Amino acid sequence: MRVRLKGVNTIRKRRKDGTVTVYRYHRATGHPLRGEPGSPEFLASMHEAGQLQLSRHDGSVIGLIRHYTLSDDFAGKAEATKREYRRILTKVEGEFGDMPIEALDDPRVRQELLAWRARVAEESGPREGDNRLSIVSSMLTWARENGHILHNHVIGFKRLYRSNRADAIWQPAHVEAFCAVAPVELQRVLVLALHTGQRQGDILALSWTNYDGRYISIRQNKTGARVEIPCTATLKTMLDGLPKTANVILTTKTGRPWTAYHFRHAWKAAAAKAGIEGLHFHDLRGTAVTRLAEAGCTLPEIAAITGHSLRSVNSILEKYLSRTRHLADQAIARLENRPRPEFANLLQTSADPVNGRNAK
Questions:
Q1: What is residue 325's predicted lDDT score, i.e. its pLDDT?
Q2: Listed residue (208, 266, 205) closest to 78, CA to CA
């Protein structure tokens, strides 16, 4: 059985005596690799090749990208985030790879990067353009903090794409319609999402060790934030009644953990069958935030459940908290039920608003 090693060229030569000799080379540098794959000698020669590759591109944007993707900052990102960064940075290499690092400190580079973003936006849409420039900005911020450059000239750039999903809230009718057609395995995911406000990946990865009978403890994969969520009575009843057929809490109908691909397509199919349009799974996170606010929770209390930092509490209002009719009803009810009616008195006039006569 032959295994194709990533980044390695393998050459086999047959000798006169019939034996086969295998030679391996690092694809990017041509550096010969010693030993068998996985052996200390092989790993050491791969490291040497990597260092040679870095030194070969030192002083250029390609070299900066290599240093960044090997950094602890990059390693600490979620796997899905790293895949997206690599996709974008590969495109950056193709566009700016041979640019000297010194050019990044020239203020004129901002216009060059913005012009590139404009071309990408025209070809692939404004969201993709913003995404590429945002990842470049993240790398440049890391480079500035680690002494590779002095300035990040695109930090705080104005985005082309604007998405406001404040009104994208799962209403009770949506939940009811979904549960009427979705298999029970997806309904369980829905309950966990609504009662915890967590991201899809963290919910699907929940194991029984995360649940102690009262609290669900999560270290969020994207941010590293740790949250301990008290279970509502509904959530506790569901969890206590689930069969423990796997290490993870949520499984498919065969008792296996969900894969991201399988779950995404199963959820999309169930939502379509329920006639739900314009709502995504991630909108359940915003829905949970809205329901907590409707229940009278403070912003720090909401952040303690969702895992947002307190610095971003104000953005919760703009990004997640929909101004619902229920909130407006609560506000007016509190206004009318105040023990002292000073504000109500201010609204009274000497005129009858219905008949136009002076009030007596």
A1: 65
A2: 205
Domain range for 149: 59-163
Instruction: Kindly provide the residue ranges of all beta strands, DSSP E only, lying in 27-91, ordered along the sequence.
Output: 32-33
Q: Which two tokens stand for residue 95?
A: 């566009």
Neighbours of 101 (CB within 10 A): 16
88 phi-psi bin (left φ>0, alpha ψ -120 to 50, beta other): alpha
Angle at alpha carbon of residue 303, lines to 302 and 307, rounded to 5°: 125
State the Cα–Cα distance between residues 100 and 62, nearest whole angstrom: 9
Per-residue pLDDT band for 335 (boundaries 50, 70, 90) equals low
Instruction: Evaluate whether residue 2 is within a structural domain.
Output: yes
Q: How far apart are CA 286 and CA 308, in angstroms?
A: 12
Cα separation, 211 vs 231, whole angstroms: 9
Predicted confidence (pLDDT) at residue 336 exceeds the cutoff of 90: no
Choose the final residue of a domain: 34, 56, 78: 56
Residue 349, domain member (yes or no): no
Query: What is the spatial distance between Cα 219 and Cα 268, in angstroms, rounded to a whole number?
Result: 27
The torsion angles phi and psi of 33, rounded to 5 degrees, stand at: -110, 130
Q: Do 14 and 40 lie in a common domain?
A: yes
- What is the chain's mean pLDDT, rounded? 85
Task: Give domain status of residue 358, yes or no.
Answer: no
Question: Residue 114: is it exposed, middle or buried by C-beta count within 10 angstroms (0-12/13-18/19+)?
Answer: middle
Count Cα atoms within 13 angstroms, Cβ side, for 300. 0
Q: How many CB atoms sit inside 10 A of residue 150's CB?
A: 11
In the DSSP assignment, the letter for residue 40 is H
Pairwise CA distance, residues 45 & 31, whole Å: 8
Stated pTM of the model: 0.64
Identify which of 259, 256, 237 has the alpha carbon closest to the alpha carbon of residue 248.
256
Does 103 reside within a domain?
Answer: yes
Q: Quick one: average pLDDT of 43-67?
A: 79
